[in-house]
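Problem 12. The chain below contains 105 residues. Write out its predicted structure in token notation.
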Amino acid sequence: MTPYQGRMLDALGDPTRRSIFELLAVGPRSVAEIAADLPVSRPAVSQHLKVLKEARLVSSTPVGTRRVYALDPQGLAAVRGYFDQFWNQALAAFAQAVEKPEEKS
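Solution.
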């Protein structure tokens, strides 16, 4: 695991940040829109977004006087790559077990 991937997993380890991440999976939102769906204040949402942004899981775009946050596709690809390695190992082990000749007792 790279330090970059570790930061991503650490960022998603917090339930509030994970909720924000899941809200952004539906579509881009402003801090106010995110805070409206969570039991935390706007300043708290901003702090959580800062952590998610530093972990490269979200990006922001200025729209007028506010910022709109969205999932970062590059960060998502890195997280997926991390988990895919385990899936690929499991599939390879399964294929090996299936192809192994059955032992007779």
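Discussion. The CA atoms of residues 7 and 54 lie 8 Å apart. Students who got a different answer should revisit the alignment rule from Section 12.3.
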